[in-house]
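Quick review question:
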């Protein structure tokens, strides 16, 4: 899904590694400024909670950007692992790679750990990094380092105080998050009484996975004498043009007087729009955030 070749220079890959690991909660001890030897590993620490206290675990991070050549990182490329870890007084080793680690390198690291020479190791390979980048909280990083990927992936981002999932009313699955998996999709469905004259009634709204969950809700309402009179595909509504058309259509219907929402249905509609905006709208930049904050402080919004 993501093209790691979007990051061109190895130096930028190192800066990306620093920002990514910081976002994951590591403390960055030393930034990847380049020394005369042509390369510098990154040093990071994390606080580990023990049974009686906390202690610091220091990782040496080795960044390798082989995305262009698309070759795995081998043992020969990662020489002197133990010496490098010891030289920085680190406890563990992290490989941060835009491809994968070769099986030889993986085996070598396992051996070092089993022999007690290395306390621990982790490999962040391209797929694992991608999985993090499409999850909530990483959209700023994605936008900064992968501008093309950002537009394709449409990551979820926090607009409000926190992220609000758009859950299926039946199984509880977060349908916004599940859209990263192409097989999954959901709908928003409008339930109402039979039309009287020109007037349509929206008695209730539900969000459900397509198929089984949707059928279950449909049956539930049918028993109450209500039917589904309209529905929209959630994936379509992630398209900004279709999303704004949906909002316009809703406003027009309300203004025409031919549509009547119950209080509950209208409240659900508003919450739905707010949650969807976490996927459809663009990530705010720092200037946007500041402007929003100052208007909110003055009580203007
Ligand atoms: Zn469901």
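Suggested answer, residue by residue:
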């Amino acid at each position: 899904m993501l093209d790691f070749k979007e990051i061109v220079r190895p130096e930028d890959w190192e800066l990306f590694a620093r920002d990514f690991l910081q976002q994951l909660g590591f403390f960055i001890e030393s930034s990847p400024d380049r020394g005369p030897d042509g390369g510098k590993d990154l040093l990071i620490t994390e606080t580990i909670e023990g049974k009686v206290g906390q202690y610091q675990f220091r990782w040496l991070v080795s960044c390798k950007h082989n995305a262009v050549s698309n070759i795995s990182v081998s043992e020969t490329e990662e020489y002197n692992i133990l010496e490098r870890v010891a030289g920085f007084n680190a406890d563990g080793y992290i490989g941060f790679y835009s491809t994968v680690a070769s099986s030889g390198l993986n085996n070598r690291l396992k051996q070092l750990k089993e022999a007690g020479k290395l306390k621990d190791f982790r490999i962040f390979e391209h797929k694992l990094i991608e999985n993090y980048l499409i999850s909530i909280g990483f959209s700023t990083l994605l936008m900064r380092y992968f501008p093309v990927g950002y537009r394709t992936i449409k990551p979820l981002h926090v607009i409000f105080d926190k992220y609000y999932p758009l859950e299926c009313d039946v199984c509880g699955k977060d349908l916004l998050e599940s859209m990263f998996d192409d097989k999954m999709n959901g709908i928003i469905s409008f339930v109402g009484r039979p039309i009287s004259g020109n007037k349509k009634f929206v008695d209730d709204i539900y969000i459900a996975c397509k198929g089984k969950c949707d059928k279950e809700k449909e049956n539930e309402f049918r028993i109450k004498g209500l039917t589904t009179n309209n529905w929209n595909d959630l994936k379509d509504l992630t398209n900004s043009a279709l999303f704004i058309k949906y909002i316009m259509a809703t406003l027009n219907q309300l203004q025409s007087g031919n549509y009547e929402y119950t209080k509950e249905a209208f409240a659900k509609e508003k919450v739905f729009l707010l949650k969807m905006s976490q996927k459809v709208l663009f990530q705010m930049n720092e200037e946007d955030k500041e402007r929003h904050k100052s208007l909110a402080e003055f009580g203007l919004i």
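Why it works: Residues 168, 170-171, 173, 208-209, 213 surround zinc ion (CB under 6 Å). DSSP finds ten helices and ten strands in the chain.
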